[in-house]
Specification:
- By secondary structure, the chain is of the alpha/beta class.
- It contains 14 helices and 13 strands.
- Helix 8 links the parallel strand 9 (202-204) and strand 10 (221-225).
- The longest helix has 15 residues, at 143-157.
- It is globular, with a radius of gyration of 19 Å.
């Protein structure tokens, strides 16, 4: 029953009449309750489930020996203690990732066993010192462990906890001889998550990955977009073009939803003030696509000017009021670092 509700609310490719907005947008815990615990850790995911999140989100990257591990990026200097580990000092290097040179430590240079010796850290310690207090306590997870956490959450809460995995830099890994899509589909098959009604929402910024997954599985797919740039595997395309009615019709060929940066649905001026909503939500619904918006954070630094309280970047603003503005647009789901607030606001 709960799975059917989730499917109807977010995952179905059929679009209900849009005379009224969805009554209950889905809350996706962005890397877990990552505003309160180091991201992508068991503690972050379990807290998000306790706070009422409908889905938990793992970002997926690959190890040298072909395992799917859960980190925001393949560069792990920001989110683990690898820089403090002398045995790995020589692995610090510079790599080109999707056309951008990055210096640090990369998961593709480590085996899973080596990565399991590292411990997670808060990515934004200056903004989130309370979360940073949990540094060093948790290991890096693999995708299978996040599936287990969700299913444990099912049993504990009596709700179906969905999973929203994002495949990060699949073209980069493919060029290294690490076919992410094959490893991912195999994992979905192991866990029975390939069906159209599976409690999963698969995300990627790249187009080709989603097109190929469409041919291999029936699980719901989401095309990620941001306010600038374009897909790494489509150098002639921009996300701005993909967000037009014509572009959205093309996306609807292979995806069930779009996942867009909040600036794309409510632009801001140069002073950081939120402006009137764009037509993107309505245009996407007209194309038969669900609309998911990212990423909602409580700190003043991330909020439009009119929702900030005080001058401290780390201070929390009127986060719930901002979320209610987004919900009122008729979006189908949001990603939030603070799922408790997102649940309360809806």
């Amino acid at each position: 029953m709960i799975a059917a509700i989730l499917t109807a609310a977010l995952l179905s490719s059929s679009q209900p009449a849009m005379s009224a907005p969805p009554a209950k947008p889905i809350v996706i815990a962005h890397r877990g309750a990552s505003g309160e615990r180091p991201e992508h850790t068991r503690a972050a995911y379990e807290l998000a489930i306790k706070q009422g999140a409908d889905f938990i989100e793992p970002d997926l990257i690959m190890t040298r020996d072909g395992h799917l591990v859960v980190r925001h990026e393949n560069e792990i200097g920001e989110t683990t203690d690898v820089a403090d580990r002398p045995e790995f000092a020589a692995r610090r290097t510079t790599r080109d990732v999707d056309g951008v040179p990055i210096t640090g430590w990369f998961t593709e240079d480590f085996t899973l066993a080596e990565l399991k010796t590292l411990r997670a850290r808060e990515r934004l310690p200056a903004l989130r010192p309370a979360s940073a207090a949990f540094d060093g306590q948790e290991p890096i997870l693999i995708f299978d462990e996040v599936v287990e956490i969700a299913r444990e959450g099912d049993a504990r809460t009596g709700r179906v906890i969905g999973i929203a995995p994002e495949l990060k830099h699949p073209s980069h890994f493919a060029a290294l001889g690490l076919p992410m899509e094959d490893a991912f589909v195999a994992a979905l098959e192991r866990h029975g998550l390939t069906g159209a009604d599976a409690p999963i929402l698969i995300q990627c910024f790249e187009v080709g990955t989603l097109e190929r997954l469409k041919a291999r599985i029936d699980a719901p797919l989401l095309q990620l977009m941001q306010a600038g740039g374009g897909p790494a595997d489509r150098p002639d395309a921009t996300y701005a073009e993909m967000a037009t009615p014509q572009g959205l019709a093309e996306v609807a060929r292979y995806a069930d939803a779009i996942g867009v940066q909040d600036l794309m649905v409510v632009p801001r001026n140069d002073a950081g003030r939120a402006l009137s909503a764009s037509p993107l939500t309505a245009d996407a619904h007209a194309a038969g696509l669900k609309v998911v918006v990212w990423t909602f954070r409580a700190e003043n630094l991330f909020l439009p000017v009119q929702y900030r309280l005080g001058d401290a970047p780390a201070g929390h603003g009127d986060f719930e009021a901002w979320l209610k503005v987004i919900y009122a647009l008729g979006v189908n789901a949001v990603f939030s670092d603070f799922p408790a607030a997102a649940v309360k606001a809806r």
